[in-house]
Each structure stands twice: as C-alpha cells, then as structure tokens.
Design brief:
This protein is an alpha+beta fold. It is 52% helix and 18% strand. The protein has helices spanning 4-13, 24-35, 38-45, 49-56, 65-78, 81-95, 128-139, 144-160, and strands spanning 97-108, 118-126, 171-183. Helix 2 (24-35) crosses helix 4 (49-56), helix 2 crosses helix 5 and helix 6 packs antiparallel against helix 7 (128-139).
Length: 184
C-alpha cells in the first residue's frame, strides 16, 4: 500500500542539488555534525555511541543492512533543508504537484449515473492550492487517512469535476491504492 507522506517526501527529494553521502563514514560524520554529537546519533539510530565513533573514523566501513537503511533514511531526512523547503514552497504557490496513481475510485453522484467504484490509473496535475494543503497537513502531523482524503479531494476536483466545470457536488472515494507517486 502506497503512502502519501512517503510519496511527498520522495517528490521533494527530487529537488536535491547534490547527492547524499554514499559511504557509511561520510553519512555518520554528516549526522554527527547535524545532531551535534555522537550520543544523539547513537540514540537516533539505535546503536552504541562507540559504534558511531568507529563509523565516523572509518574504522568500520560496511554496516548491517538494517543499520545501512536507517542511516541512509536519517541522512536523507536531514539533507539540504533549504532546497527541500524551497521546492515545497514553489509547489504550494506556483507549480503544484503531479500525481500518478493506480487506485479504486468511486463517487456519489445523481441517481441514474454509473457510480460503481473501479480501478483507474490517473496521472493528474494538482493545482498549487491542493499541494499546499497536502504539505500543510503533512507538517501538522496528519494521519495517512487524512492525507489520502486531501489527495482524493484534489484528484476529484481536477479529474472528475474538471476544475469546477462539470459534475458539481460529486464526492470522490479514493481506496485500494496500488501505486501512488508524486512529482514536482
């Protein structure tokens, strides 16, 4: 099941101007600098302080697979915060987001119409106001269900209601998400 929050984070990471550090030692040194100490990094990664020191000094070079994933995620979450914020601000004010999804869409409509839910593959450009609502909700700590509801509202507005030109009052249901990807 695709996560809206993870998709938004991956979209913003596409704006990075430099790649994240590759080696475990470089990643540890970056985290030590960002978190201002080896104890904080050790707590964040769930390892001992001495292990962090050894990675930072390149005494250990290859972390276990689970530690490598946690380390890369921690670095990626803190990498280029200004670029990340600039990309979010631009998407929320001028460019919007492109959503590529394969999910079951259903809707409530007037009697006599075909409102049965069916799986659709959509690639839709969301307007900046919908992107702003998604980013604001993510910053406020909204649940995955709330983020999906905002995404469904944006997709319904842009695809089914065509920006307010048709299907007034149509309520869209966004369920059984197989694939969800955002792009700036």
């Amino acid at each position: 099941m695709a996560s809206v929050s993870d998709g938004l984070n991956r979209a913003v990471q596409q704006a990075f101007t430099r790649p994240i550090p590759k080696s475990a030692g470089a990643q540890m040194r970056y985290l030590v600098k960002q978190l201002k100490g080896t104890r904080a990094v050790a707590d964040a990664l769930g390892v001992s302080q001495r292990t962090v020191e050894r990675y930072a000094k390149d005494q250990i070079r290859r972390p276990r697979a689970d530690l490598a994933a946690r380390l890369a995620d921690a670095v990626r979450a803190r990498w280029q915060p200004r670029i990340r914020e600039q990309a979010r601000r631009q998407a929320a004010t001028s460019t919007g987001l492109v959503v590529d999804t394969r999910a079951r869409f259903g809707f409530t409509a007037a009697p006599g119409t075909s409102d049965d839910a069916r799986v659709r593959h959509l690639t839709i450009a969301l307007a900046p106001q919908h992107a702003a609502r998604l980013f604001d909700a993510q910053d406020a700590g909204a649940s995955e269900q709330q983020l999906r509801a905002i995404a469904a509202e944006g997709l319904g507005e842009m695809y089914f209601r065509d920006g307010g030109r048709r299907a007034h009052g149509l309520e869209v249901e966004f369920t059984d998400v197989e694939h969800l990807e955002f792009d700036l």
